[in-house]
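Minimal example, chain plus zinc ion.
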Amino acid sequence: MLSRRAFLSGAAAAIAGRAVRVAGQARTFDLMIKGGRVIDPSARLDGIRDVAIAGGRITAINANLTASAAETIDARGKLVVPGLLDIHTHVARSADGPPLVLQDGVTGWIDAGSQGADHIADTIAVARSSAQQGRVLINIGRAGILPEGDTMDLARADVSAAKEAISKNRDFIVGVKARLSRDVAGANDYEVLRRAQEVASSFSLPVMIHMGQTISPLPKLVDLLKRGDIVTHMFAPPPNSIIDDSGRILPAVLAARQRGVWFDVGNGMTGHLRWDTVDAIVKARFWPDTFSTDWNTNSRQTGVIDLPNCMSKLLGYGMTVPEAVARVTVNASRTFPVFKDRGTLKVGAPADVAVLELREGTFEFLDNFNGKITGRQRFFPSATVLAGKRIART
Ligand SMILES: [Zn+2]
């Protein structure tokens, strides 16, 4: 005999089932992600839901979907979030890059200036063959990233070469990268950025600057940035960080955010992130717009590990889980038009989904200076769905 409780929950299920039929939606889905904590900041959604996918699109999100599906992912105890977007990577340096980050839940990536005009075809070839969306920023230094410094020789910041490369590859080049540190551009930093902006503006594209340890004062550089441009490595320590010694965010930085310049983490490996600088910047309540990895094929052996790990680093500073998710989904989708319909689980959107685990415990997070902090929570990748299809884990 049924207990009253079992009878009631059975009745509730019957009602839910009837509701589906009444709405004319009794159907078979291609894929169902069942019972996870769905966090979609684009819809201000944070709750236990089932996500149904058909024809490569999100078809329904509901608390208890009873329709059948060809395949089911059991997401109980896990997070279900829009596919992650990583706007500062070097994924396109290797054909192995795209499938590796796809395993981490990254369904869209930007290669941020691995190559300049001379070899841009190499990174575009990787982007073209990537299963997920991948696009590139062209390095204003025509030879790309050089150990001796991309634009130490100012002649390498070649405006006409960059313009020609962009006009031939409008579909894959989505912006211009200017790396401005002392060891990359030397005293040329301001002129390199001026040239990058000249190129980008002529195509209405954004510039991404690599800040930190520049020779020119940061305000002089930031003042050249327009709405939609991106400052990466925003947690870089002095000289020329975004905050002064007394803990105030520089007025030029506040003004840049005010006019629509984005501030990105760009975790990386050397010189870009130091815990005392992070501490001062978040104390001033200047939170990043986006998290990114500055990923390369060695990242797993560094403090980067993967994008979910980089997303975890501010949880101990008071950032909430949905706020962290927003920074690699809806916020990131606004930075480049190629991601305009991504970073969301709204019904009708392309079905790019990341299933993550949010583990509780004691986790060590590294900066770029062998500094360690301990956190109580860390995101781990669990499953990736791209265009409605579950990606096999390797
Ligand atoms: Zn980089």
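The first helix runs from residue 4 to 22. The radius of gyration is 22 Å.
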